[in-house]
TrEMBL record:
This is Nuclear receptor 2C2-associated protein. Its main location: nucleus. Belongs to the NR2C2AP family. It holds the Pfam family F5_F8_type_C_2. The keyword Transmembrane helix does not apply. The gene is Nr2c2ap. Keywords: Nucleus. It is found in: Nucleus.
Length: 136
C-alpha cells in the first residue's frame, strides 16, 4: 500500500514556465495519466518528500515521459534531526512505462535528484511518483 494515499508535503526544483496549475507537483500524485509534473530546463532537477512520521520504504514507483526521463536518480534520506544520507542509486530507463525500484529505507525525508536527463535541456516529466511501504 502507498505510504500516503494523499500527497505528503512535497517540493520540486522547478515547474515549466512556473505554470503550477498545468505542470505542478500535485500532478505526480493525482492518479491521472493526463497530468504530470514538468520541470523547467536546467541540470539536476529534484523532488523532496517530507513524511509526517518515519516510514519504512519498500518500493519506489516512477513514471516518466519518454524523452524527458532521468538515466540516473540519486536518493538521499534521513530521519528528523539527522543529516541526509546517500541511499542506493537508481538507473531508470527512458520509457513511458511505470518503473519500480525496490529498497529498504527508513526515512522521514526523501530527496530524489534526477542527475542525467534524456532531454537536451535537462527537463524532467513525471506522470506518477509513488512510495510504497509502511508507517513506523
Amino acid at each position: 500500500h502507498p505510504v500516503s494515499p494523499v500527497p505528503c508535503p512535497c517540493r520540486v526544483s522547478s515547474v515549466l514556465h512556473r505554470d503550477v496549475k498545468q505542470f505542478g507537483k500535485k500532478h505526480m500524485f493525482d492518479g491521472s495519466d493526463e497530468t504530470c509534473w514538468n520541470s523547467d530546463q536546467g541540470t539536476c532537477q529534484w523532488v523532496t518528500l517530507d513524511f509526517p512520521q518515519a516510514v519504512k520504504v519498500s518500493q519506489l514507483h516512477i513514471q516518466f515521459q519518454g524523452g524527458f526521463a532521468s538515466r540516473l536518480c540519486t536518493l538521499e534520506g534521513c530521519r528528523a534531526g539527522e543529516e541526509p544520507v546517500k541511499l542506493p542509486v537508481l538507473y531508470p530507463e527512458d520509457t513511458n512505462a511505470m518503473q519500480i525500484s525496490f529498497a529498504q529505507l527508513v526515512v522521514e525525508k526523501l530527496k530524489i535528484t534526477f542527475e542525467k536527463s534524456t532531454d537536451f535541456f535537462g527537463r524532467i516529466v513525471v506522470y506518477h511518483l509513488g512510495v510504497l511501504g509502511e508507517r513506523l
